[in-house]
Structure prediction request, 201 residues.
Amino acid sequence: MRGIEQIPWLYDAICAFVEWRGLARWRRWIVDGACGRTLDLGCGTGRNLPIFPTTVRAVGLDPSFEALRRARRRAPAAPLVQGSAEALPFRDGCFDTVVSGLVLCSVPDPAIGLAEVRRVLRPEGTLRALEHVRATTAWRARMQDALQPAWTRLAGGCHPNRDTERAVEAAGFAIDADGRRARANLRRFAARLRGVRTMQS
Prediction:
C-alpha cells in the first residue's frame, strides 16, 4: 500500500497546511542559504525548487516518478533525476550544497544516505536540513516508538522516532550552532564536514 508521501496531491495539501502554520519560514531558511550547485535531496513535488536563489543551480532528486512529474510543473527548467539517497547517481564532490527538507526520516538506511551526501559534497560544502526528530522527553520518545510501525506504513516510510541530528553527526558532520532552531520535534540546521573549518583557519 502506498503511503501519504507517495500520493503527490495529498502530500502537497498536507505540506501547504503545515507551511501555513509556520513551517514555510524554515523551508525558506534552508533554501536561502544554498549556494552554487545544489542537490535538493528528496525533492518530492518540488516545493523547494522555485524558491532557490537565482544564483543557485539546483538539481532535484526523488525516488518517485509521480512526484517528479509534479515537480516538473513547478520548476520546468530544473534538472530532475529519479534516484535513491542511498545510491546518488553523481560523481564525488560535485555539489556545493545539499538541501534535505523532511527527507532523512524516510530514507530506508539513513547512515548510507548520509554517507552518500558526504561523498557528493565538496569538502567545504554544506548540508542544510529541515527535519522532524526523536522527542527529547522520555515519554514522548516512547510514544513515537510505539506509533512508529503503523505510522511508517501509513506515511510510506517515514520514521518519526529517528534521532536525525545524531545520525548527521555520526556521518562526520558538525552542526553549526548559528542558525540551528528547535521547535517541539522539528529541527532546522546547517552542517559541514567535521574538521574542514579547522584546516582552513
